[in-house]
Amino acid sequence: MELELSSLYGQDLYTDRGIYVGKIEDVSVDIKEKRISGLAVRNVNPNAFEVSKDKGVIIPYRWVTAIGDVVLIKHVKRRRADVVAKEEEGEGEGGEKAVEI
């Protein structure tokens, strides 16, 4: 499926359980692999992620389940900023973390 990156900017981001996460502000692209690697979200809903004031998160693109009028991601439990601060490579689907920005 082809997707224009500009179509993601400003889209609302929700979990698949209907919890509003925030608006997509930027897209992280892995040029070498020719794929989207993450979605940068600012003004994050504190019910989704607990981040420092004026901070955001980068949601791993593998969490995205659907793109349409809104973008849906897999539901994640609310986590503290110090827990989501680093993404660990090579852990697969279960071990991925959102990265605070």
For the largest beta sheet, what order do the strands appear in spatially?
5-6-1-2-3-4-7
Mean pLDDT: 78
Classified by CATH, the class is: Mainly Beta
Number of DSSP E strands: 7
What does this structure look like?
The protein has 101 residues and is mostly beta strands. It contains one helix and seven strands, in the order E-E-E-E-E-E-H-E. The chain has one helix at 81-84, and strands spanning 12-15, 20-30, 35-42, 56-60, 64-67, 71-73, 99-100. Strands 5-6-1-2-3-4-7 form a seven-stranded mixed sheet. The longest helix is centred in the last third of the chain and has 4 residues, at 81-84. The radius of gyration is 13 Å and the shape is globular. Residues 81-93 have low confidence and may be disordered.
Main attributes?
single chain, 101 residues, mainly beta, SH3 type barrels, 7-stranded mixed β-sheet, 1 helix, 7 strands, 37% strand
